[in-house]
Design a protein that fits this description.
The protein contains three helices and 30 strands. It is mainly beta and about 375 residues long. Strands 11-12-13-14-30-24-23-18-21 form a nine-stranded antiparallel beta sheet, with no helix packed on it. The radius of gyration is 21 Å and the shape is globular. It binds alpha-D-galactopyranose (GLA).
Length: about 375
């Protein structure tokens, strides 16, 4: 009796220590019958993140607003099959190379490689069947001060035209401080190029109540990489000072997004550009802040990557429908995709996207939520 009581007390203690929990369950199945699973990370501060095995995708992210109301702040679909059929990369883990590689061509050590061109003349987000459309495995889940899910994927040598067998993990963890941390790691069997990132579309108003034009955005970036008309960097690193790209102090997204005098705004149809994050790449540093005045939700993004792609959903045109059969339109979300610069394999003076055997690639992203 006494013993049983002690055991219960001990369990109670452990219960308090294990503040955030991870649970695993079915998410549904694809048209071809393959089963999709999901891990849900829940903390004691009202946040929960659901990650599904298809694309190691952040499928939903519930965050309390300033009055404690819990709502989903990421765009996506209700069913797994829709993620496969639509090309928007909602919440997906993107690879092998997030963003563009010019004309789908690069060379390594004198050898040329040809990739699919699936975005006009260019290669985008790893090709027609990138990591977002692959089934990842759940390696482990754990509860504790950080609730954690480790997902993995092995990309065969030559998959989508890239050299080397690439072993990739995506580790999502959530703590009680409302920080969702995401870490991509990879090793390769041959020299290769890669750029892994997460492609979440944030709408902090919750359940997409409002578009993001009134969101206040700060980007810790004194320079960005201008692009040509096909969104390939020209190689220039341009100062943001005096341009619609100066977000070093908070600005409403909508204030300068129609400034057609700026050729870069015209090329991007708004914002679809890589910003060079201030400070030393490799160290975790603050890169971006988004504040949604209506709900009071605030998102702070810290990164180890050299760059961050700021994209305002410019290709969403109301022809496809997300969670709850809601039509998604231009300016309905903000994407902040930390990584190396677009088309790095073809720009020797950009931070390298090369990975050699024996090295470990790491890209760490922290999304911290709060209210004001
Ligand atoms: C990235 C690109 C955009 C677009 C989206 C996906 O953000 O920079 O141009 O391709 O992905 O639609």
């Amino acid at each position: 009796m006494k013993f049983a009581f002690a055991a219960v007390a001990l369990l109670g203690l452990c219960g308090t220590a294990q503040a955030a929990t991870a649970t695993r369950g079915a998410f549904g199945q694809l048209a071809d019958g393959s089963k999709v699973e999901a891990v849900t990370l829940t903390n004691s501060a009202g946040m929960s993140a659901k990650i599904m095995t298809l694309g190691a995708t952040l499928q939903s992210l519930v965050v309390p607003d300033r009055s404690g109301k819990k709502e989903d702040v990421v765009l996506g679909y209700d069913t797994a099959q829709e993620y496969l059929s639509r090309p928007n990369y909602f919440g997906a883990s993107v690879g092998r190379y997030a963003n563009r590689i010019a004309k789908g061509k690069f060379s390594l050590d004198g050898k040329s490689f040809t990739l699919a061109t699936n975005d006009g003349p260019n290669h985008l987000h790893g090709g027609p069947k990138g990591f977002d459309k692959r089934m990842w495995k759940i390696d482990s889940i754990s509860s504790g001060p950080d609730a954690k899910a480790v997902l993995s994927y092995v990309s065969a040598d030559g998959e989508e035209g890239y050299p080397g067998e690439l072993k990739v993990t995506a580790t999502y963890s959530l703590n009680d401080q409302n920080e969702l941390k995401l870490e991509y790691r990879a090793t390769t069997s041959k020299p290769t190029v890669l750029n892994l990132t997460n492609h979440s579309y944030f709408n902090l108003s919750g359940n997409d109540a409002r578009d993001v034009m009134g969101n206040m955005v700060t980007l810790d970036a004194a320079r960005f990489t201008p692009v040509d008309a096909t969104l390939i960097p020209t190689g220039e690193r341009r100062a943001v000072a005096g341009t619609p790209f100066d977000f070093r102090t908070p600005h409403r997204v909508g204030d300068r997004i129609r400034d057609a005098k700026d050729q870069q705004i015209r090329f991007g149809r708004g914002y679809d550009h890589n910003f060079i994050v201030d400070g030393a790449a490799g160290s975790l540093r603050h890169a971006a802040r988004v504040e949604e005045p209506g709900s009071g939700r605030v998102l702070d993004v810290s990164v180890t990557a050299p760059g961050i792609q700021f994209y305002t959903g410019n290709f969403m045109d109301g022809t496809f429908f997300g969670k709850g059969q809601r039509a998604y339109r231009q300016g309905d979300a903000i994407c902040l995709e930390p990584g190396v610069f677009p088309d790095s394999p073809n720009h020797k003076d950009f931070p390298t996207s090369r990975l050699n055997p024996g090295q470990t690639y790491v890209n760490t992203i922290v999304y911290k939520f709060g209210t004001h």
